[in-house]
Design a protein that fits this description.
- By secondary structure, the protein is mainly α.
- It has a single domain, classed as Hydantoin permease, CATH 1.10.4160.
- The two termini are 18 Å apart.
- The model has no long low-confidence stretch (mean pLDDT 91).
Length: 512
């Protein structure tokens, strides 16, 4: 019998925990600063309504009906489209491996926060604390150095992930009660402190007062839509897995609205923290759209300037990085849940053993990020997955649901338990069939154009080579795109020993 969420709140909190991650805490404020504050928020909200919410609803509703993860759900819509689901799973594999490394860096900064006590006003020491500890070389060839503190934190990150997810919805439901509420409490405390700093209101104004001229910048639209797409955890198998554990009487429409707007509100709260704090210490113009730079280089500089008390600055640092830890753990274990659900569904595997195996295998692969080359490799991998394979997966999911299946059946399933508020036909169908695929395809093409404008090499200014782009970028893209074929080969081998695939389609499933 398939596991189920213990309650509606467990599903909502788990989904919010997955959606609300490190990108909300640092990338969102950085992009808002880059693109005129309120103007970015406006486009972000429009993109959330037009693209994000319909896609999220589609994934959850299809999974609830089919009781399958991403590959099984896609197969149920069309037998030839199971590979699209494996694209989502493969995205999750690539993302979770490097996300664990970022999680390890956050744990490391939390542990080292006591050092801020003796750095009052010393921005140079604060900015170099992280880079010195991880021993980054800045070049992809730097495999000869290893940061042992990062290795210890990486092991801790994977251990925490497994402990939180080892019993599926049972442990996840218990963990998210704390890991979703704690960062919100921490952010509220930090927002209050940020607004108490002298000059903080100038930061508050910059975040919320729009610079409408920024709307003329096409990059604003690309980054706003991209932030929505990545933030809601779509196209990486997570929401298919979570949706498959829902009870038949769940109200997906209302729950999805809660999840999406909770995600947005936490992003705005993080923005208030970042803008008021940076303005209060005179560093508002130093904010970066790079999450890594903001969290590990720029924000430490701000922390040591918050007050003249080293003890206070240290406590503030502990709270800040503890907040990031709670944001990171939910996102990491939700991705692993999506992968584990897909594999255990497909091959009838023991879920707990599958989860442990995934954590061990991915943990071994993630060791590449504890070397001096780790930061550069992470940057390349993150760019290629987020700029290409996630978008391809999103486009294909929409095409399967919109053109290879009768979309109105999905809409009927979506609205099955909704009385007061139903997802309108005019909102859902055009988004799934036309608007979202076109917009995501536009993003994909735009990213390719920008890449070739830079000579076809991502990160050339940072010393990344074409060879590094091919090995850690294009080869990874190729592996993800071929994931469905790899699974087919495995199935073919297993079939010789009596294994039989589940060929059940949507129309074969009877719902009361």
């Amino acid at each position: 019998m398939r596991e189920k969420w213990s309650s509606r709140s467990a599903f909502i909190l788990a989904s919010i925990g997955s959606a609300v991650g490190l990108g909300n805490a640092w990338r969102f404020p950085g992009l808002a600063a880059k693109y005129g504050g309120g103007a970015f928020l406006f486009v972000y909200l429009v993109a959330m309504l037009v693209i994000g919410i319909p896609l999220l609803m589609m994934e959850i509703s299809v999974a609830r009906y089919t009781r399958k993860g991403a590959p099984g759900s896609m197969r149920a819509l069309n037998k030839k489209m199971e590979g699209v689901g494996w694209l989502a799973v493969s995205n999750g594999i690539g993302i979770s491996i490097y996300y664990a490394a970022v999680f390890a860096w956050v744990i490391l900064m939390f542990v080292m926060s006591f050092k801020f006590m003796n750095m009052t006003g010393d921005t140079e020491a604060a900015s170099s604390l992280w880079a010195t500890t991880i021993k980054t070389t800045g070049v992809v060839e730097g495999f000869t150095t290893i940061s042992w503190p990062v290795l210890g934190c990486l092991i801790a990150a994977w251990g925490l992930c497994y402990v939180c997810i080892r019993n599926g919805t049972t442990t996840v439901g218990k963990v998210v009660k704390f890991t979703v509420s704690l960062p919100v409490i921490c952010l509220l405390i930090m927002a209050i402190r940020g607004m108490m700093l002298p000059g903080a209101m100038s930061g508050f104004a910059k975040l919320f007062i729009p610079d409408w001229s920024a709307l003329a910048d096409s990059n604003l639209w690309v980054d706003s839509i991209g932030q929505v797409f990545y933030s809601l955890s779509t196209s990486m198998a997570i929401m298919f897995a979570y949706g498959s554990f829902l009870s038949d009487d769940s109200n997906i429409v209302v729950d999805t609205i809660i999840i999406a707007f909770s995600d947005m509100m936490v992003s705005v709260l993080a923005g208030i923290v970042m803008f008021t704090t940076m303005a209060g210490v005179g560093m508002l113009d130093n904010m970066s759209a790079s999450g890594i730079a903001t969290a590990f280089i720029i924000y430490p500089q701000a922390i040591v300037k918050i007050s003249d008390s080293g003890v206070f600055n240290m406590i503030f640092a502990f709270i800040f990085y503890f907040c990031l830890i709670t944001l990171a753990i939910d996102s990491l274990f939700s991705i692993i849940e999506g992968i584990s659900t897909a594999l255990s569904d497909k091959f009838n595997l023991n879920k707990k053993k599958t989860t442990l195996t995934i954590c061990i295998v991915e943990g071994i692969i993630s060791l590449i990020y504890v070397t001096g080359a780790g930061l550069a490799i992470l940057d390349i991998v993150d760019y290629f997955i987020n700029s290409y394979t996630l978008l391809i997966t999103g486009i294909l999911e929409m095409l399967v649901a919109g053109w290879f299946f009768k979309t109105t059946k999905i809409l009927d399933e979506l609205n099955r338990n909704t009385n007061k508020f139903k997802m309108p036909h005019w909102w859902f169908i055009p988004s799934i069939k036309v608007i979202s695929p076109i917009v995501l395809a536009g993003l994909f093409i735009w990213n390719l154009i920008n890449l070739f404008k830079n000579g076809g090499v991502y990160g050339a200014a940072d010393g990344y080579t074409l060879k590094a782009n091919i090995i850690f970028g294009w080869v990874l893209v190729a592996l993800i795109l071929c994931s469905g074929l790899i699974i087919k080969l495995i199935v073919k081998v297993k079939s010789s020993s009596g294994y039989k695939e589940d060929d059940t389609t949507w129309d074969d499933m009877k719902k009361s």
